[in-house]
Amino acid sequence: MNQVVTDWRDAAPLSKADFEAAIRNVGVERYHDKHEFHKLLHGGKLQKHQVAAWALNRYCYQEAVPRKDAAFMSRVHDRELRREWIHRIHDHDGLGEEAGGIERWLVLTDALGFPRDYVTSRRGALPATKFAVEAYVRFVVEQPLVVAVASSLTELFAPSIHRERIVGMLESYDFVDDHVMAYFKRRLSQAPRDSEFALGYVLENARTREEQEACVAAVRFKCDVLWAQLDALHHAYVTPGLIPPGAWRPE
Amino acid sequence: MNQVVTDWRDAAPLSKADFEAAIRNVGVERYHDKHEFHKLLHGGKLQKHQVAAWALNRYCYQEAVPRKDAAFMSRVHDRELRREWIHRIHDHDGLGEEAGGIERWLVLTDALGFPRDYVTSRRGALPATKFAVEAYVRFVVEQPLVVAVASSLTELFAPSIHRERIVGMLESYDFVDDHVMAYFKRRLSQAPRDSEFALGYVLENARTREEQEACVAAVRFKCDVLWAQLDALHHAYVTPGLIPPGAWRPE
């Protein structure tokens, strides 16, 4: 079938309801909860070293998110928007006494046996992981602001994967307990607050059909960022299990 | 005299004391407290519309600083450094109930008769002002991290200019009172905390002579950013008083 590139410049804007449905439909089609690796992870089908590889690589994503949010804020002239957005950095980096989500992620990598400085050095992570997450950081620098905001909207789909993950991993793996899953429990309340704000912003500020379609494409892009990380993990640590040079090798 | 470009790659590093002295010497030579416009401002020699032009233009700098700090943070993989740095954004943008330094700056532009949306639109500011402050935002994105940190070190020289400004402006101008000068009073306590951290970071992390010289050059660059703003103001609103197209014109 031929790929048709549509020119949206002359098209009428979608209603807000249709625009929101188009965004949510991206999640139905390609959010990473559909990836084979996640099915294995949540279904208790992975060995400990495979869960470890996931946590080690996913650290790179966690670590990139506050940098992505700072990169976004560096472009925002609207002080009220910055004041709203900054709590995302607080959520990940912590603020004062609150240690933040990255610290909670390191509790998980602790439980999986990694020294912290190995994790934070990112040197055992798959190159494809690092390329994907840095593409996300660049995306929010290079795209129009509303499109950059739209790229965060995979958070709309996050609570259900987190709920599934908490239940599935607690049931299936003896190296996982409530303490270790604290990151995901916290995100259950943080992600909806963030995605509600971002969705409202995008629905309000993407006015032309072209802008709306760019926002929908941004959600697809972000799904690609997440999916590519699981592809790389699956290829390296499940099937065919070909670990690239320099990446972490289980003993 | 011929300009000599020195190759520092083979030179021995400066001692920390000499390195710090070289940084501080940049302030002695070219911090903007030496600029003719500041002498007029602090000496009570300006008319109200000239003070207004200064406040209107300097808003662009205030507004750029938290974006600069976010741009810096977007490059920092060290969570502890981000957790330290983020309070600079809080200082400018405020956090929760605290309104922040930009709000205090707008109290000053209020007192000088500008509608807030005119100020925040930045459309009456001189192009040279905007070019200078955006060069600062880009600098911290493009330079090595330690050099980016060094560019903030003009804060070492800020408290004395702020003290001089508070005294001079309160004595000289009937449109200035304590409330209006709140921004500078707050910076008297904020700037030393920031510059102490940044100086320690730079002294510790610039190890080679080449890195040290790049840090000293960063302080010079930042002095240029500040100086260029006053040159543009002086040219447009003092002597010869040639206001470029589109910039604010006093009635």
From TrEMBL, chains A, B:
Pfam families: TENA_THI-4. Keywords: Oxidoreductase, PQQ biosynthesis. It comes from the Bacteria. Pathway: Cofactor biosynthesis; pyrroloquinoline quinone biosynthesis. Residues 23-231 form the Thiaminase-2/PQQC domain. The keyword Metal-binding does not apply. Its EC number is 1.3.3.11. One of its GO terms (biological process) is pyrroloquinoline quinone biosynthetic process. It catalyses: 6-(2-amino-2-carboxyethyl)-7,8-dioxo-1,2,3,4,7,8-hexahydroquinoline-2,4-dicarboxylate + 3 O2 = pyrroloquinoline quinone + 2 H2O2 + 2 H2O + H(+). It is an enzyme of class 1 (oxidoreductase). The keyword ATP-binding does not apply. One of its GO terms (molecular function) is pyrroloquinoline-quinone synthase activity. InterPro entries: Haem_Oase-like_multi-hlx, PqqC, PqqC-like, Thiaminase-2/PQQC. PANTHER family: 4-AMINOBENZOATE SYNTHASE (PTHR40279:SF3), PQQC-LIKE PROTEIN (PTHR40279). Belongs to the PqqC family. NCBIfam families: PQQ_syn_pqqC. Ring cyclization and eight-electron oxidation of 3a-(2-amino-2-carboxyethyl)-4,5-dioxo-4,5,6,7,8,9-hexahydroquinoline-7,9-dicarboxylic-acid to PQQ. This is Pyrroloquinoline-quinone synthase. It comes from Methylocystis echinoides. The gene is pqqC.
